[in-house]
Amino acid sequence: ELMQEYGFMGLIGTSLPMQRLYEQIRNAAASEAPIVITGESGTGKELVAKAIHRLSRRQTGPFMTVNCAALNEFLLESELFGHVKGAFTGAVRDRKGRFEAAQHGSLFLDEVGDMPLSMQVKLLRVLQEREIERVGDQRPIKVDVRLMSATNKNMEELLGQGKFRDDLFYRINVIPIHVPPLRERIEDIPHLIAHYLERINQINRKAIRYISPQALEAIEAYPWPGNVRQLVNMIEYATMTAKGDSIEPVDLPEYLFRKGAPAIIPSRGGKERITKEQLDATLRRFKGNRTQSARHLGISRVTLWKLIKEFGSVG
Ligand SMILES: Nc1ncnc2c1ncn2[C@@H]1O[C@H](COP(=O)(O)OP(=O)(O)OP(=O)(O)O)[C@@H](O)[C@H]1O
Ligand SMILES: [Mg+2]
Fold first, then answer.
1. 60 with 159, same domain?
2. In this structure, are 176 and 56 located in the same domain?
3. Ligand 1: which residue has its CA nearest to atom 28?
């Protein structure tokens, strides 16, 4: 019933790593234990947290988010615990913090690895006592909140460097969940493209229905360091450039075609330099079409012609 549209609870993907993730989401939702969700940027950590909340007993309660990297120590404390009128300059009235706002629901601490050490001490105390104090107030307030945290940092490293407290980590990381990078589940890419194409078509009143096999091949060969977020941005870009009702290699951004590690090396002139491998791959991909090849390499047709001569490539 929850398996709609090649995925689960708003997450698209049917690959084995995603099926394992869905299983972990179900287990986490059946529990009250705190969770730490790890994974590279753009893998869907926030979607995972929301899915767990919506499947849990707390689904009728609020889901609140705090980004621990976006606020300084002082603002973060007031954001999490609230403050009372007169607590500091600018505190013109009492204000609830996110812990109170998440009462009987879930609190999602995003980028938890960036939380300052002094705040970590305060958070640990809150988790032990199950009560908070608003800034400028001594009165304890009971809070019933399920904590979920996420980070794209390497927590082991932060622990080793003393940037994150072990005692806090063990307390928040009762259920660890790892979201796999997109390059480890490329079989999900066609489903993601179909899903987001439809969405973008609706928003932009376009009718792009297909993706050519060559374009898909290039997309699947790319390592996607920015994961699903980057893929979605790329699809948006491609739909803007697409002429007909399908996405062709020519509509894809040039970075997809820079194969191999040092595909572009700096030349003596300081300009970016294209390698023979890259040139040949591009020419093959565009079946020798120089206009399309030049466009994808970000160079003029004259420069392309010179490179073909220099490398002795077949153009
Ligand atoms: N499996 C998925 N199916 C559909 N959309 C996804 C999936 N994973 C991620 N997305 C989309 O990609 C974007 C990034 O997802 P999200 O914000 O959850 O990533 P994140 O892991 O929290 O990234 P960051 O570490 O940068 O905060 C969102 O628009 C989200 O809807
Ligand atoms: Mg996020």
1. yes
2. yes
3. 229
Which one of 43, 110, 196 would you pick to mutate in the ligand 1 pocket, going by the greatest count of ligand atoms within 8 A of its CB?
43
Rounded to the nearest whole angstrom, what is the distance from the C-alpha of residue 229 to the centroid of ligand 2?
A: 10
Q: Is residue 193 a part of any domain in this protein? A: yes
Number of domains composing the chain = 3
CATH code of residue 113 = 3.40.50.300
Cβ of 10: how many Cβ atoms within 10 Å? Answer: 14
Closest atom of ligand 1 relative to the 231 alpha carbon: 12
Give the domain range for residue 146: 7-180
* Distance of CA 309 from the midpoint of ligand 2 (Å): 47
Q: How many residues does the chain have?
A: 315
**2, part of any domain:** no
> Going residue by residue through the chain (315 aa), what tens digit of pLDDT does each one get?
344 569 999 999 999 999 999 999 999 999 999 999 999 999 999 999 999 999 999 999 999 999 999 999 999 999 999 999 998 988 999 999 999 999 999 999 999 999 999 999 999 999 999 999 999 999 999 999 999 999 999 999 999 999 999 999 999 999 999 999 999 999 999 999 999 999 999 998 889 999 999 999 999 999 999 999 999 999 999 999 998 899 999 999 999 988 653 333 333 333 457 788 888 888 888 888 888 888 777 777 888 888 888 888 876
* Residue 155 CA, ligand 1 centroid: distance in Å: 20
Ligand 1 — pocket residues by CB below 6 A?
A: 11-13, 39, 41-47, 152, 228-229, 232
Cα–ligand 2 centroid distance for 43 (angstroms): 8
